Structures are given as structure tokens and as C-alpha cells.
Amino acid sequence: MDIQDIEPASIAFDIDGVVADTMTLFLAIADQNFGISGLRYEDITEYDLQKCLGIDEILMWEIIVRILGGNYAMPLNPIADAPAVLKRINQRHQPTLFVTARPDAEHISEWLCKMLDVPEAAVEVIATGSFEDKREILMDRGVGYFVEDRLETCFLIADAGIRPIVFKQPWNRKPHPFPEVGTWRELESMIRLK
Predict the structure, then answer these.
(1) Range 8-20+78-188 classified under CATH 3.60.150.10
(2) Cα(149)–Cα(130) distance, rounded to whole angstroms?
């Protein structure tokens, strides 16, 4: 399914796994802080990390809480080319909308502003606290397209008339009917930026 000519005002973005390379950070924390080595990015074939990585649930949540709170020493890096493409989108439409299932937006909002080198007013981050609540926010904001890495969320928002664009990750390689992109440059080609 080919999508072209998306207006910058009609698209919004998930953060973790789409803009932020959160899973690489998760693996680095597991290795450096807890001595769990040998885990690879491509091993993350399920969104439920415990299912695919076989790590203790309490430890998994300890790492996740560190990430959500910004309590880690190593950097949270952006996905390749995300900053450059998002800057171009942001120049065409502000604020650029990000909707995340994180329970709190403060840390990740600061990270986005710093990464994009934009003032706080140039981005809007809405933390829903749950995957299911993204749909209502996107509908209320009149979003037509949402870039997401979690397939279950894609199905939820599609039912509400919002067109999901799947950002390819090892954990979303199951059959689905949605358009998908593997890179930010590929996504950029779908958006009207001229």
C-alpha cells in the first residue's frame, strides 16, 4: 500500500521504537548494569520482552522504569535520520505531535527538544500511560496518520479511521494490512515537505 503526499499537520509519531532507539538502550542497561550479555536487538521478536528475551520480570521492569525516568548513564540515541526528518517536518508544521504510552512526558519531551534543537513550544508530547488511550488522543487531534511500531496499537487506531504506518522492527514482523517503512528517509518520501 503506497502512501504519498501526507500533510505535515496530519501526521503524528510514537516515540519508543520509532524516534528513540529505546531497545538498544534497554539491552545496554541489561548488559552494563545487570551483567545480562548476549542479548541481541534481532532477538526482540515480541513486544513483550519477557517472552522473547527470557529475562526475569522484576529485572525487566527495573530496566524499563530506569528508561522511563531517565535514570541511566548511557545515551538514548535517536533512530537513524529521525532528527533530520523531524526537523524538516517541524519547519513545515508546529507543534509536531508525539503520542506515547509512557506514563509521563517530561523526560522524553526534554530529550526530543534537545535532539531536534527546538524550543519546547515546537513539539507536543502527550503521554497516555497506555497503548489503548492513544486512539482517543489521535482522534481528538484530527490526526490522519500515525507512525507506530506496535502492531496491536496499529489495529486499534485503524478501527478509529486513523491510518497507521508501521515502523519496521523485529517485534512487528507478523502479517498486517498496513503500509510500513524501514527508515526515516523512506517515511520522509511520503510527506509533503516541499
Answers:
(1) no
(2) 14
